[in-house]
Amino acid sequence: MPNPSALPTSVKNYLASPRPMLINGVWHSPENAALIDCIDPATAERIGTVYAAGGDQVEAAVTAARHSFTDKRWRAKTPAEKARILWRVGDLIEQHADTLAFLETLDGGKPLTAARQGEIPAAAESFRYYAGWCTKLGGRTTDISIPGDFHAYTRREPVGVVGLITPWNGPLVMAAWKIAPALAAGCSVIIKPAEVTCLSTLYLGELLIEAGLPDGVVNILPGNGAAVGAALVQHPQVNKVSFTGSTATGKKLVQAATGNLKKLTLELGGKSPVIVYNDADLEKTISGVAQGIFSNSGQVCVAGSRVFVEAGIYDDLLGGLINYAENLVIGPGLDPATEMGPLISDQQLNSVRNYVDSALQEGASLVTGGKKLNRKGYFMQPTILTGVRPGMRVMKEEIFGPVLSVMKVDDMAKVIALANSSDYGLAGSVWTRDISKAHKIAAEIQAGIFWINCHGIPDMAMPFGGTKQSGWGREAGLEGLEHYTELKSVIAAL
Ligand code: ADP
After folding, report:
1. pLDDT at 1
2. Nearest-CA residue for atom 21 of ligand 1
C-alpha cells in the first residue's frame, strides 16, 4: 500500500478538515450537523469527513435554487454565455484532474489510472458536450391547419428546480452527466451525492464557482438517502428529480414523487446479457467479456453479468475467462499495478458473497474466485459461476460485484428468449463476426443500450438508460438534455 504521505498536497489539504456543503454560493458547516465519515474501501480507514445536511439545509438549498430560477440569474443568460461557463467547467476539471482522481480513488476504491484516464476526462467531456448544446437547443416553427393566418412554434423551456441524486459507483461522472444538461437547459440544481462518496462532487462545486456560475444555481447537499434524498423527492418546490441508483430505491421515488407529480428520470439496475457465438474473435471476446464484468469490481449498472455461450466456443471462452480472472492484479487503487480495486463497503462485500453462496446452494459450480481477500479493506476475488439456470438468484438479481454467470447454450435459437428473461432491460452485447446476425440480435434484445463486439462503452452522444425495470428516460445525447425542459406550443393569430 503506498504511503498516504505520498498523496498530493492538494488532496491532503482537501481532506484535512470536514468538508462543508454548498448552499446559495456559500460553503456551510452547520454547527449541529452530523459528520459523515469518508472511508477508503482499500483500507477500511477514515480519510476525511463531510457535513451531512438536515431538513433546514434542504429547505435553504431548495429556496436558494428556486430564488435563482425565479430571478433568472442563470437561465436568462444567453446560450453563448451559458456555453462558455460550462466549457470552462470542463477545462477546470481537466486542470484539477489529478486531485479529482485521487479523491475518487480514495473515496470509492477504483484504480487511480481508471479514474485519471477514464472517469475524470469523461466528467469534463459531459460539460463540454452540453456546452455545445446550449446554442443549439430550441423549438421549431410549424404550419398549422386551422383556417386563418397564424404563426405557430414550440419553445424548449427549463423544467425548473431539479434534484439530482447520484450513486457511489461513479460519483463525479454521474454528477457531471446530470449537472451539465440541467444547466444547459437553464435549470437550477440541488445535488445529493451518495453518502459514501461525496468528496469529488463537493470538489466540483469549487470548480463550478470558479467557472463563474451564479450563486444558488448549483447547491450540493451530502446526506442520508432516506432523509435528504427523500426530502428532495417529496419537496413541492422541486420540479424534477433525476436519479441513478437501485431499482428498489427507484420504486420508492416513484411513490414519493406523487405530491406535485414531479418529473422523474430513473437510471436503475441491470442484469445485462452477453451473447457469444462460435464465430466470435476468441481473444477479443475473452478480454471484452471479462472487462465487461470486472471493471470497477463489477459495480457498474451495465455490467455484463450473464453470459450465454454457443456450445462450440464454450470451453475455450470459459478457459480464457478463468485465466483472465486469476491473473487480474487486485489491490488498492492507489497502487499503479492494480487492475481491480476493492468493493465499496463491507456490507456490499457481504451481499456479493451471499449471492455466490446462494448460487452454490441452488446447484451452480464455482470455477474460480468466490472468496474475500485476506487483507484489510473490502476485496473480493473475481468470480465465475457455471452450471447456472435462468431461475437462480444470480441470474435474476443485480449483484453489483465481480461475479460472472456463464451458461452454455446448445440451441442458439433460444438465446434471445434467455437473454430477455429478466425484469431488467438496461444493456447487453453480442460477440460474433457475422454482422447480419449481430444487428438482428441488437434489434431483438430488450435493452436501452446494446453493444456489438464491445461492452460497457458509453459516449456522450449516445442516449443511455433502461427499458423494463431498468428505468425511465435517457441520459446523454440530446434526449438527456430534453428531459430537463418542458415543451411549450405557441399559436399566434396574425
Ligand atoms: P445503493 O443501495 O447501492 O446504495 P441506492 O439506490 O439506495 O443504492 O442509492 C442511490 C442514491 O439514492 C444515493 O445517493 C442514496 O443516498 C439515495 N437514496 C437512498 N434512498 C433514498 C430515498 N428513499 N429517496 C431518495 N434518495 C435515496
Report:
1. 45
2. 225
